[in-house]
Input
Amino acid sequence: METRLKKAIDRVNDLLDRYILPLPVRFLTFRFVILLTIALLIPLIVFANNTVLVLAVNSYLNTMSVAVSSIVLLYATISEARQKQIAELQEKRALEDHMHVTEMHNLVMQTLQNQNEEMTELKRVLATLAGKEVVTVERAELPDIKSLHPRGKERFAEADLSRRWQANLHHNAFVSTIRKGFSAPMQDEQELTSRPPTPDESGKAA
Output
């Protein structure tokens, strides 16, 4: 029941974000509307004795003030959530790049070890042919690349980002509660990669 209610609310929010809320934003950010709103101070002063006009203009200005404040708060809330998503995506990419470099370094070390083993075998064959005693050199073990990181293997743990996020950032209950209404960035990324492209997206790609 709760899941269906959340999906219904998400659909309503998506409808509002796509078709309804952009209209007042475009209206309020139109340059002439801004100039006209500022110019309404003139009739408030000139026609101060006209109660009907003053109340009408004052109601308009109050409505615009509330609308602008609400839109700014909405933008700030969404921007804060998106910044957290961007930070998590950047951290994920950095971890993936770090893992890739680590694996490449492991391959290089394994290649060097194979070359040393081949050289040791070649020396053994040459020593056998020359009738000399074969000198056995103890082979050094490959170091654990992940343990060489300043924070050790903990840096490569899946929960490392969430632990560092909880430990190093200032948390506010109000912000955290509001952020719960936004989907996780990993979920958004999976949905974008799994769903087929829309006709508009296909047209843009073409």
User: Anything to note?
Assistant: Residues 184-193, 201-206 have pLDDT under 50 and may be disordered. DSSP finds nine helices and no strands in the chain. The first helix runs from residue 2 to 20. Residues 85-190 form one domain.
